[in-house]
Write a structure and sequence with these properties.
The protein is α/β, with parallel strands linked by helices. The chain has 18 helices and eleven strands. The strands form two sheets. A six-stranded mixed β-sheet has the order 1-6-5-2-3-4, with helices on both faces. It has a five-stranded mixed β-sheet with strand order 7-11-10-8-9. β3 (63-68), α4 (89-107) and β4 form a beta-alpha-beta unit. The longest helix is centred in the N-terminal third of the chain and has 19 residues, at 89-107. The relative contact order is 0.10.
């Protein structure tokens, strides 16, 4: 299966501006770019298919350039929901640095900032060199602009497509970029760049879009929808991402495996077979969660997230991040231990809690308040005291 056919099979191609793109992808060495605006300090899972695509292209000898729009983020892309709040230059710079580091770590691809080539263009030159080539009718015909008109559209956001067209022309002339790839909602901006290159240079450039990542209800996954799964581990931990993905619905998990992982078609088809035969085992979901967390955060974090998830499933808790208590004496009874740990204020309260099935040791219910805490109860020098289903404390034996 050649690359273009594989991308079609994975569902990563929606629109193409020319049939020539298939030949370019299969047989040539293409320099292409994909862009995102640093309107937040992290990308999210909705962006992730773009990063996987870039890695796939790079693996096949193509040259991906990832544009983080320090200039376009200052303007705002019409989104059909009212205008975006304007961010300060300092906020944009901070977000750019965070996203650039994130993208570089995940893909190793070159990153450029469109602020570098737009900051010195004066307004008269911008209007004459770029605005002159687009009619109002042409711009109003774009879907994103039409949708935004219902909410009101400032001239600032109306100009966004001109800046993106400028980007394509600049990268075409200065970096040999012949193809722009983006989500399907960017088709109007891509074709504006193609048109600008044709009108000013008399040459042909190309565009391709990818379907947006949708959940099982057909809703877009992303920041603007309020359901972002952030790629930054401080905003969304590897374990939390693993849990999110392992709970993927059967109806979309194979689609996610195709779009979000570099597993081979054979591996994915095998997981699809297992899903159809024994969906209760959730093999496809486990593979998706592990592969995505591994690619974003590294194999060590993926293994830890997997282990933590399995612990929670089997025990109802995980030792990862659990509060700890150091015990320096033995042969006290369970009531005394609970008081010593400040789980309860008194032995009488401890007795009521224990006899009421409220206390477990190492995931086993304990109903004897007089149970002696001996060394034999400890597993590798520790035991887990659980109060109900939500309070779990690791007790370390200190000699």
């Amino acid at each position: 299966m050649k690359l273009y056919e594989e991308l079609k099979w994975r569902g990563l191609i929606q629109d193409v501006s020319s049939p020539k793109i298939e030949e370019m992808i299969n047989d040539g060495k293409v320099t292409f770019y994909w862009g995102t605006d640093p309107t937040a300090d992290s990308l999210h899972i909705g962006h992730y298919t773009n990063l996987v695509l870039a890695r796939n292209f790079k693996k096949h000898g193509h040259n991906p350039i990832l544009l983080v729009g320090g200039a376009t983020a200052l303007i705002g892309d019409p989104r059909g929901k009212g205008e975006r709040p304007l961010l300060s230059r300092d906020e944009i710079k901070y977000n750019f640095d965070k996203i650039a580091a994130q993208v570089n770590r995940i893909t190793g691809c070159e990153i450029v900032n469109n602020y570098d080539w737009t900051k010195d263009i004066d307004v008269i030159s911008f209007l004459r060199d770029y605005g002159k080539h687009f009619t109002i009718n042409y711009m109003l015909d774009k879907d994103k602009v039409r949708r935004q008109l219902e909410f009101g559209l400032s001239y600032t956001e109306f100009s966004y497509m001109l800046l993106q067209a400028l980007d394509f022309k600049y990268l075409y002339e200065n970096r040999g970029v012949t193809l722009q790839i983006a989500g399907s909602d960017q088709w109007g901006n891509i074709t504006s760049g193609i048109e600008l290159i044709r009108r000013t240079l008399g040459e042909e450039a190309y565009g391709m879009t990818m379907p947006l990542v949708l959940d099982e209800n057909g809703n877009k996954i992303g920041k603007s929808e309020g359901n972002a799964v952030w790629l930054d581990k401080d905003k969304f931990s590897p374990y939390k991402m693993y849990q999110y993905l392992i709970n993927t619905a059967d109806s979309v998990v194979i689609d996610y495996l195709k779009k979000m992982t570099l597993l081979t078609p054979e591996e994915i088809m095998d997981l699809e077979r297992k899903l159809n035969e024994k969906p209760e085992l959730r093999e496809a979901q486990k593979a998706l969660a592990f592969e995505v967390v591994k690619d974003i955060h590294g194999e060590e974090e993926a293994i830890l997230a997997q282990k933590t998830s399995e612990e929670v499933f089997t025990k109802g808790y995980s030792e990862e991040g659990m509060p700890e208590f150091d015990l320096d004496e033995l042969n006290l009874n369970l009531m005394e231990l609970l008081v010593k740990m400040q789980i309860v204020p008194s032995k009488s309260e401890a007795r009521r809690l224990i006899t009421g099935n409220g206390i477990s040791i190492n995931n086993e219910k304990q109903t004897n308040p007089e149970l002696l805490i001996t060394e034999e109860l400890f597993d590798s020098g520790k035991l887990i005291i659980s109060k109900g289903k939500k309070t779990h404390i690791k007790v370390n034996l200190v000699k």
